[in-house]
């Protein structure tokens, strides 16, 4: 495949074998993103863990101080007495049985599902639809709670959940290319600090092996793991 002129220019600006600071990487990323749309910016962090071992599974949530830049679509599966609360907090879809039926039919046009403990039993049979898309609510990520309004408003404000994949890498969005470099630095720092706090005690040796920042279709920029 031919490399476009923009891609060549972008690759030329990223020094091979250099580890950038968060500040340098965030500023450079804005220079090498040429998409006509507002590209997503992501971090890929390789951890020194073995995800096959339960005591080395790294999973958590983080509230990005500057949000994700994406309007997260939230479905609140709640009992009638909680519907107004969920709507007031900004949930895009609110209800129960009608949405359970839609999901059963394959509908998953949402980013996050928030629900209550009493309803989790009804969601179990939908695991095959929700699981592969990362939509199954989980108490650990705050999406199974009696405080539905708080959960919805946190997601809308930029709370994301992340999990190490089977290769030991955490992929997470930290904003959009239209964000200022300072905002990207703030969001990246919050995510990396949270990951550091989640280091399993059973993980030996180097914990953060590598960190790469990239936007949609841009080259990756290597970040100093000592950020």
How much is the radius of gyration in Å?
A: 19 Å
Low-confidence stretches: none
Please summarize the sheet with the most strands. Answer: 4 strands, antiparallel
Q: What's the total number of strands?
A: 9
**Order of H and E elements:** HHEEEHEHEHHHEEHEE
Widest sheet, order of strands: 7-1-8-9
Distance between the termini: 35 Å
- The geometry reads as globular
Average pLDDT across residues?
93
| Helix/strand structural class | alpha/beta
Instruction: Please give the count of helices.
Output: 8
User: Helicity range of the residues?
Assistant: 25-40%
Give the DSSP E fraction (strand runs of 2 or more residues).
15-25%
Summarize the structure.
It is built from eight helices and nine strands. With 227 residues, the chain is α/β, with parallel strands linked by helices.
Question: What features would you highlight for this structure?
Answer:
about 230 residues, alpha/beta, three-stranded parallel β-sheet, 8 helices, four-stranded antiparallel β-sheet
Task: Report on the architecture of this protein.
With about 230 residues, the protein is α/β, with parallel strands linked by helices. It has helices at about 5-15, 20-30, 85-90, 95-105, 120-125, 125-130, 150-155, 180-195, and strands at about 40-45, 60-65, 75, 95, 110-115, 160-165, 170-175, 210-215, 220-225. The strands form three sheets. The chain has a four-stranded antiparallel β-sheet with strand order 7-1-8-9, covered by helices on one side. A hairpin with a 5-residue loop joins strand 8 and strand 9 (about 220-225). Helix 2 (about 20-30) crosses helix 8 (about 180-195).
């Amino acid at each position: 495949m031919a490399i476009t002129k923009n891609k060549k220019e972008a690759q030329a600006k990223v020094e091979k074998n250099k580890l950038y600071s968060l500040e340098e990487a965030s500023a450079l990323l804005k220079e090498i993103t040429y998409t006509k749309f507002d590209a997503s910016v992501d971090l890929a962090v390789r951890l020194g863990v073995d995800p096959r071992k339960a005591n080395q599974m790294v999973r958590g949530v983080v509230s990005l101080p500057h949000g994700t830049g994406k309007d997260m679509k939230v479905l609140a599966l709640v009992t009638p007495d909680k519907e107004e609360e969920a709507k007031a907090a900004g949930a895009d879809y609110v209800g129960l049985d009608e949405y359970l039926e839609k999901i059963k039919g394959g509908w998953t046009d949402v980013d996050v599902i928030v629900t209550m403990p009493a309803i989790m039993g009804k969601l179990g049979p939908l695991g095959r639809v929700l699981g592969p898309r990362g939509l199954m609510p989980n108490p650990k990520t705050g999406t199974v709670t009696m405080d539905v309004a708080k959960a919805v408003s946190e997601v809308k404000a930029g709370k994301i959940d992340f999990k190490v994949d089977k290769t030991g890498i955490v992929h997470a969005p930290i904003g959009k290319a239209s964000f200022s470099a300072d905002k990207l630095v703030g969001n990246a720092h919050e995510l990396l600090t949270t990951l550091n706090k989640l280091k399993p005690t059973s993980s030996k040796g180097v914990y953060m092996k590598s960190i790469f920042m990239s936007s949609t279709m841009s080259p990756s920029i290597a970040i100093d793991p000592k950020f």
